[in-house]
Amino acid sequence: ETELIRSEPLSKRLDCSVWLKMENQQISGSFKYRGISLLCKEAVEKGCKKLVCSSGGNAGLAATFAAEVLGIPITVYVPESTPKTVRVKLIEHGATVMVHGNKWDMANAKALEAATEAGRDTLL
């Protein structure tokens, strides 16, 4: 769960109570964790044993944290433009990181190809 914070400036401006959900407090630091973790959990409940995804950063981190919590392996395909700090964080949390191409589309195409391999039946 993430914190709710009342925004005084917005509440006054809009003349109603405005609350902000602090999704940056998710384990991955991004709102993407909420949806991606649910998708990963449902995939595991259906028998998924490995995850494959493509990402330029936040989605890969969210999927990696979900895989870590669920105790299953994940391979994340990233383009060359993904910062080294993101790649290191992915690896530190258990992802196998594959760098492919200079654009996300290229990394995604490679991830789609890898997802068809035996045992890898989920692509995010």
Structure commentary:
- With 124 residues, the chain is an alpha/beta fold.
- Helices cover 44% and strands 15% of the residues.
- It contains five helices and five strands, in the order βαβαβαβαβα.
- The protein has helices at residues 8-14, 32-45, 58-70, 84-92, 104-115; strands at residues 4-6, 19-21, 51-54, 74-78, 96-99.
- The strands form two sheets. It has a three-stranded parallel beta sheet, sandwiched between helices. Strands 1-2 form a two-stranded antiparallel sheet.
- β4, α4 and β5 (96-99) form a beta-alpha-beta unit.
- α2 (32-45) crosses α3.
- The protein starts with a strand and ends in a 9-residue tail after the last helix.
Helix segment tally: 5
Oligomeric grouping of the chains: single chain
Question: Helix proportion of residues, in percent?
Answer: 40-55%
Number of DSSP strands?
A: 5
* Sheet/helix structural class: alpha/beta
Physical arrangement of strands within the biggest beta sheet: 3-4-5
Low-confidence stretches: none
The SSE order reads: EHEHEHEHEH
Strand fraction band? 15-25%
- Outline the biggest β-sheet: 3 strands, parallel
